[in-house]
Write a structure and sequence with these properties.
Helix 1 runs antiparallel to helix 2. The protein has 4 domains: 179 residues, f41 fragment of flagellin, N-terminal domain (Up-down Bundle); 32 residues; 156 residues, 2-Layer Sandwich (Alpha-Beta Plaits); 249 residues, Alpha-Beta Barrel (TIM Barrel), CATH 3.20.20. It is 61% helix and 13% strand. The two termini are 109 Å apart. An 8-stranded mixed beta barrel has the order 8-9-11-12-13-14-15-16, surrounded by 4 helices. It has a 5-stranded mixed β-sheet with strand order 2-3-1-6-7, sandwiched between helices. With 678 residues, the protein is an alpha/beta fold. Bound molecules: ligand C2E and calcium ion (2 copies). One calcium ion (CA) binds next to strand 13. Pfam families: EAL, GGDEF. InterPro entries: Cyclic-di-GMP_PDE-like, EAL_dom, EAL_sf, GGDEF_dom, HAMP_dom, Nucleotide_cyclase, Rev_trsase/Diguanyl_cyclase. Keywords: Membrane, Transmembrane, Transmembrane helix. It comes from Novosphingobium beihaiensis.
């Protein structure tokens, strides 16, 4: 384009310059030629005049015959006048075109006219001779006239030719210039400007983030590399966008893409109409990765994504928003509810996944929120509500779907408050320990379980079931755990006849230097590790955690006894018994409470007790809340009993008097917890 324009403009300039040169040259030549024409015209006129004058002279000379003296003198004067006129004309002709005629030639002798006049006036033979001379002059004038006219005609023709030529050249150059200008104009308006406009349009769309445009192939040489660069930029930007919006493992949209797409759908559908947002994650997905490797884990995630699509339909949005986390945006078909749809999905995912030579069964936990049930329609808000419901699903045993309710939010806010206030509670004496007696069925050994209490200045008593998880979430568990151990051990120094169960958070088992810390505290307080039973729960699966297992081994080797707490609430209790040899099993309240009423519960309870006894572990029945349970649990083979019916947790200051009263009571009746309970 640039070269084309430069060439065309150079040509126009050259043409204009050529026009100028040609015009100037021609103007000079034409002036010269017109001057010459003027001279030849003047010469022709003079020669015609000369011819007339010579003829007049001839006639006058002929008529001069000398009849009267007076008449002769007058006629001679006239002749002399004519001769003088001839002389003037000849002089004028000499001036017209000097050098055109050689006036010295014999035949041009108009110089001796006065002698001719005199000879004519003389008459006779002299006159005849003079007349012959005049005839010669006549011939000469005729010749001159002929010559002059010929020259004039030639000059005229030449001028005419030159003018035509000049006109021709000027016209040609003018036309060429016009044609060039027209071509440039056409090129500019039909090719260059539209191409520039299109390129500008492409640039604007790209700048506006429209990556779906097709960058055209330009024919203009200057635009070709630019178009190429634009196309490369567009492709790169597309790749970056895809990378930024797609989960590479599953090809599903990622969190950002989900938020954008769901927001668009919500915008397009002004009034809520059965749409819901759900989030779910794969229960214990970590174990799949640990047991089968990450490649299988990735494939599983992908397959679960496909099943979600199959259940929810093509219209639903299914996105992977985290390692094993998915988000859904779907619309309930008529007659269905989000709860039903989510349960269907959970059931579909429960079907085993076939891999090459093995199959994997997993469950998912879901949380959902229906559009229109919360005020804020923002996708991120809806996701956070669904997340709350998801955590409720997890808390309640996984493999289920929970809908968002305002209660969940209140619980979450309370959790936040607890997390925040724990630091203060630790330093301002809001925490204390209470001790719940545990009774041995067959001997007199006395034992208590240390339980922590928090009296919140605004909330009153907060359950450890609530604030221990808050401490674990907020990273305060090591600090809180250390406080509990310190307090419990220092209390235990006052009760030399008691042994004590202390609850440990799974996080403490993974804490650096926990074993030396515990040993050091026991040494400081002069307490034998054998008096301390450490209760651990199976909630964070210890059997998969080598570090926790190692800590347990170290603690046992140091002389502490280890109890598995809350047996019967999780799904892997039996596995745990295999991985680590616990000294004691504490059967959870939920296992104990129905043994009186329900035969199946009784069978499960009996089996658990039998198994524990066979591996030589003690068995504690927790939650003995009524008299009948004392008998059943003891008969089933439990070695220990604990529960509100036997004793509520006792304040530290009251422990001594509590046991004193117990001893007094035993002295009056016969001992043992069963009889105490009776
Ligand atoms: P846990 O270890 O199973 O403790 C027994 C819980 O059951 C205690 O609740 C106790 O008060 C309650 N309980 C005892 N007998 C009965 C009964 O007959 N009926 C009923 N309904 N409940 C009974 P608490 O003190 O609220 O503790 C709840 C949970 O909090 C504990 O369950 C334990 O997991 C945790 N926790 C309590 N104190 C500590 C602690 O010092 N450290 C750690 N890490 N966790 C603690
Ligand atoms: Ca316990
Ligand atoms: Ca327990």
């Amino acid at each position: 384009m640039e070269r084309r324009l430069i060439l065309a403009i150079t040509l126009i300039i050259a043409c204009t310059f050529g026009l100028q040169v040609v015009s100037q040259n021609r103007a000079v030549a034409l002036r010269r030629e017109s001057e010459e024409l003027q001279a030849t015209i003047s010469m022709a006129e003079h020669s015609a005049q000369l011819m007339k004058q010579v003829l007049h002279f001839r006639i006058e000379a002929n008529g001069l015959d000398g009849a009267t003296q007076e008449g002769t003198a007058r006629e001679a004067d006239d002749l002399t006048d004519v001769a003088m006129n001839i002389g003037e004309t000849v002089n004028a002709m000499r001036m017209d075109a000097p050098g055109t005629f050689d006036w010295t030639e014999q035949r041009y002798t108009f110089g001796n006219l006065d002698q001719v006049v005199a000879a004519v006036a003389t008459g006779g033979e002299t006159k005849h001779q003079a007349l012959r001379e005049v005839d010669r002059m006549l011939a000469s004038a005729a010749h001159l006239q002929e010559q002059a006219e010929h020259r004039r005609d030639k000059a005229y023709a030449s001028l005419e030719r030159s003018t035509r030529q000049w006109f021709g050249r000027v016209s040609t150059i003018g036309i060429v210039t016009l044609v060039l200008a027209a071509i440039i104009l056409w090129d500019l308006s039909c090719n260059i400007l539209p191409a520039l406009r299109r390129m500008h349009g492409s640039l604007r769309r790209l700048a506006d983030g429209d990556l779906d445009l097709a960058v055209e192939r330009f024919t203009l040489r200057e635009l070709r590399p630019l178009a190429h660069a634009l196309e490369t930029f567009r492709r790169n930007a597309l790749a970056v966008r895809d990378l930024a919006f797609t989960d590479p493992a599953t090809g599903l949209p990622n969190r950002r893409a989900f938020i954008d797409a769901a927001a668009r759908r919500i915008r397009d559908m002004a009034a809520p109409g059965g749409e819901f947002i759900a989030v779910f994650d794969i229960d214990r997905f970590k174990y799949v990765n640990d047991d089968y490797g990450h490649a299988v884990g990735d494939t599983l995630v992908q397959l679960i994504g496909e099943r979600a699509r199959a259940v929810l339909g093509d219209d639903a949005l299914v996105a992977r928003i985290g390692g094993d986390e998915f988000a859904l945006y779907a619309r309930c078909p008529a007659g269905e509810t989000p709860a039903v749809l989510c349960s269907k999905l959970a059931a579909k995912v429960r079907e085993p996944f076939d891999f090459d030579g093995f199959s994997i069964a997993v469950t998912i936990s879901l949380g959902y929120v229906e559009r229109g049930t919360v005020q804020d329609d923002a996708v991120t808000t809806l996701i956070s509500k669904a997340d709350l419901a998801l955590y409720a699903s997890k808390r309640n045993g996984r493999n289920r779907a929970t809908g968002f309710t305002a209660d969940l939010e209140d619980a979450r806010n309370l959790d936040r408050m607890l997390e925040r206030d724990l630091a203060r509670a630790l330093s301002s004496g809001e925490l204390r320990m209470v001790y719940q007696p545990i009774y041995a069925v067959s001997d007199e050994a006395s034992e208590v379980e240390a339980l922590v209490r928090w009296r919140h200045p605004d909330l009153g008593d907060v359950s450890p079931a609530q604030f221990i998880p808050a401490a674990e979430r907020s990273g305060r568990m090591p600090q809180l755990g250390a406080w509990i151990i310190e307090r419990a051990l220092s209390d235990l120094t006052q009760w030399p006849h008691l042994s004590m169960s202390i609850n440990l958070s799974p996080l403490q088992l993974q804490q650096d230097g926990f074993v030396p810390f515990l040993l050091e505290r026991c040494r400081m307080h002069g307490i034998q590790p054998g008096r301390v039973i450490l209760e651990v729960t199976e909630t964070v699966s210890i059997e998969r955690n080598t570090r926790a297992l190692l800590t347990l081994e170290l603690l046992r080797n140091a002389g502490f006894r280890i109890a598995l707490d809350d047996f019967g609430t999780g799904y892997s209790s039996l596995c745990m018994m295999k991985t680590f040899r616990f000294d004691r099993l504490k059967l959870d309240r939920s296992l104990v409470k129905d043994i009186q009423a329900d035969a199946t519960s009784r069978a499960v309870f009996d089996a658990a007790v039998q198994m524990a006894r066979q591996i030589g572990a003690e068995v504690v029945a927790e939650g003995v809340s009524e008299h009948l349970l004392v008998k059943s649990a003891s008969e089933a083979g439990c070695t220990h009993l604990q529960g509100f019916h036997l004793s509520m947790p006792v304040e530290a200051e009251a422990i001594e008097s509590f046991y004193a009263e117990q001893a007094a009571a035993q002295n009056t009746e016969t001992g043992g917890p069963a009889s105490a309970a009776a």
